[in-house]
Amino acid sequence: MDIKDIIKEENLVYSKTKVLTDNVMHYCPGCTHGVVHKILAEVIDELNIQEKTIGVTPVGCAVLAYNYLHIDWQEAAHGRAPAVATAINRLYPEKYVFTYQGDGDLASIGAAEIIHACNRGEKMLVIFINNGIYGMTGGQMAPTTLEGMPTSTSPYGRDVKMTGQPLKITELIAQLPGTCYVTRQAAHTPAAVRKLKKAITKAFDNTGKKKGTSFIEVVSTCNSGWKLSPVKSNEWMVEHMFPYYPLGDMKDE
Amino acid sequence: MTEEIIIAGFGGQGVLSMGKILAYSGIMQGQEVAWMPSYGPEMRGGTANVTVIISDSRISSPILQEFDTAIILNQQSMDKFEKMVKPGGTLIYDPNGITRHPERKDIKICKIEAAEEAARLKSAKTFNMIVLGAFLKVKPIVKLENVIKGLEKSLPSRHHHLIPMNQEAIQKGMDIVKL
Amino acid sequence: MAELKLMKGNEAIAEAAIRCGCDGYFGYPITPQSEVMETLMARKPWEETGMVVLQAESEVAAINMVYGGAGCGKKVMTSSSSPGVSLKQEGITYIAGAELPCLVVNVVRGGPGLGTIQPAQSDYFQATKGGGHGDYRLIVLAPASVQEMYDFVDLGFELAFKYRNPVQIQSDGVIGQMMEKVTVGEFKPRLTDEEVVKRYGSWATTGKTANRDRNIITSLDLDAYRQEQFNLKLQRKYKEIEEKEVRFEKIACEDADYLLVAYGSSSRICQKAIEIAREKGIKVGLLRPITLFPYPTKAIQAMLGQVKGILAVEMSAGQMVEDVRLAVEGKVKVQHYGRMGGVIPTPNEIVKALEEQIING
């Protein structure tokens, strides 16, 4: 059988969603961002809200997320994505607004902005990628870095006596009356990806229904920053991150 | 004509609103006006003062170091502003609570016993309008009809029923001021 | 319809915002400008025109809300006073870098640090020379009356959208707190979402439709050569602004032997100083920059054949005087007179400074 006989419409088992661009992603092989981007794009496509969706990118590895999804984007200053998204949401209440932020952006420099946006119950969705490290700047300690975890600014492991305990910001967010859906997910197995996709779909649905802020933490890997192979990173995440950052819904109203 | 006025007293005496009514009166007769208050912590229970300028032409500085007329309603303001009246200018004061009366000989000094009169009328709120009446008697730079229009403009309409009372107080001030 | 009102400068900013069709105000309280947001909240423009008014959690959040709103092609603004405007510098440079239109109002108070709440003009460098990082400029308007506070809101938005550049109204505690007679204009309707798409849909995040590529609001370009090209484009824009948008006023300059240069509230005090000086027989005039960037350099140069000396008067240690000196290029004597930390110079002080530093100096 010739290859041309196989490449036919009726044999198609998978196609890339049109919401994803053809740009080659700059993320490291094994990085969680690519998976989450793809899920986001698929959900936007499936809900048919491409024309109504406006994304806000952070400072961090995902700063260039606007290269990968065919939607309108704003690139915010470090940590300020929730403030930027607040205005977009207020001025275009019929749009689907989301922020996509990492742990340094959301839980450190932007802690005030995320807490207040969630407390106001901005009708938006937050994707929070938590890999416990600053990836973009080269593996520095994040507020979510685990105790004892070595990074370039905690080379002997995070000393919690010096820097405090890893911040469970999602648990904090879940306390805020403005949030309607707060969940912690992962993207390391096909089952996890399916669950994450469900969560993102629900969150967009909440946004459309003007229910409040939906907040999805994705416990992620940074194999470059962690200095582990992608496979080892996933194992390390399951073994060390999940016990401290347990997966599951914290709030679903 | 340009009239540069300072009104000074305690916070709560209606100093700022009196200035505002005066400024509005100026607008009602087509003049240029400026109203410049002291602001900040000074306002909290301490002294309050406001500069009001009414002029036929464009007003230059809202910040002044000397005034045509000073309306003085407490001792601190007397100490501060008596010396800032232009030679030949006017000082109007309420002697209530004043321990050192004005001493200058080169200015016109007028007394208005507004606090006493307001107490007699059992209407503390008319105090500043009695003082305004005294000013208008001494310096009739704005017509009474325009002051009433100014009152209408500066008071929210839910308070418009108070205008006749204010008008009476202004008249009272005009009657009892000692030139 | 147009009306005559007695208003504080800060109230005039709020009233003008509502009447000129502003879509959103995002602010944080700070003396001496809190009346801007207070007036808006009392007026409830969301019921009247649909304008959004939001008290943000910080000045930082407020300016980033402005970024978000401006990125949507909406007419948005913030206001603050000096310490708050320092906090906003991050957002302002991003807005300049992303070429977004917006209006920032600074009711300047004395510094440095927490300083005082009394009026000052010590943020001239911050407003005109950068403030935030990078080679960018704001268009800076300096009102000298409450009427100008009102008028410059509409003018500011017009310039902001014309050049896709942030505009700053540089006021101070005197102009903000003072009441004057103001002619308020007629209501301009806010643009509908469809009109925004039509006018600004080529760049604003109005939602990616099938007929266009995605719009991206960003100030990031990691390619140094492209970033340089972008910077050159910005510089061409600033050059055009310098050629077309200079605004100034000359008072009593026809026969002037000496010149005062002052903006905002200082220019008002200088007018009184001129009255006093002319009574003494000193022929002095005033050049009042209305735009601080672009600066009226040529207007000052045009006076050089006529005047024997120039006194720049500011409530600062001498910031704007540097731009006067750059214009004058040493051709006549230029001196600075100023008070700082919230102290306002008196007209007599200015006359004395003119006599001592310029005429007899």
Provide keyphrases for this structure:
heterotrimer, A: 253 residues, alpha/beta, Rossmann fold, 10 helices, 19% strand, B: 179 residues, Pyruvate-ferredoxin Oxidoreductase, domain 3, six-stranded mixed beta sheet, 6 helices, 36% helix, 24% strand
SSE blueprint:
The complex is a heterotrimer of chains A (253), B (179) and C (361).
Chain A: H1 3-6, H2 32-46, E1 53-57, E2 72-75, H3 81-91, E3 96-102, H4 103-109, H5 111-120, E4 124-130, E5 133-134, E6 140-141, H6 160-163, H7 169-174, E7 179-186, H8 190-208, E8 213-219, H9 223-226, H10 230-244, E9 248-252
Parallel strand pairs in A: 1-2, 1-3, 3-4, 4-8, 7-8
Antiparallel strand pairs in A: 5-6, 7-9
Chain B: E1 2-10, H1 15-28, E2 32-37, E3 47-55, E4 67-72, H2 75-81, E5 85-93, E6 108-111, H3 114-120, H4 127-138, H5 144-154, H6 163-176
Parallel strand pairs in B: 1-4, 4-5, 5-6
Antiparallel strand pairs in B: 1-3, 2-3
Chain C: E1 3-8, H1 9-19, E2 24-27, H2 35-43, H3 45-48, E3 52-55, H4 59-71, E4 76-80, H5 82-97, E5 102-108, H6 124-128, E6 139-141, H7 146-163, E7 166-172, H8 173-177, E8 179-184, H9 193-200, E9 216-217, H10 224-244, E10 248-251, E11 258-261, H11 264-279, E12 284-289, E13 291-293, H12 297-302, E14 309-314, H13 321-328, E15 333-338, H14 347-359
Tell me what you see in this structure:
The complex is a heterotrimer of chains A (253), B (179) and C (361). Chain A contains ten helices and nine strands. Chain A has 253 residues and is an alpha/beta fold. Chain A starts with a helix and ends with a strand. In chain A, the strands form two sheets. A seven-stranded mixed beta sheet of chain A has the order 2-1-3-4-8-7-9, sandwiched between helices. Chain B is an alpha/beta fold and 179 residues long. Chain B has a six-stranded mixed beta sheet with strand order 2-3-1-4-5-6, with helices on both faces. The radius of gyration of chain B is 15 Å and the shape is globular. The mean pLDDT of chain B is 93. Chain C has two domains: 3-193, Rossmann fold, CATH 3.40.50; 249-359, Rossmann fold (3-Layer(aba) Sandwich). The termini of chain C are far apart. The relative contact order of chain C is 0.13. The mean pLDDT of chain C is 97. The chains are: A alpha/beta (253), B alpha/beta (179), C alpha/beta (361). Strand 2 (72-75) of chain A pairs parallel with strand 9 (216-217) of chain C, so a sheet runs across the interface.
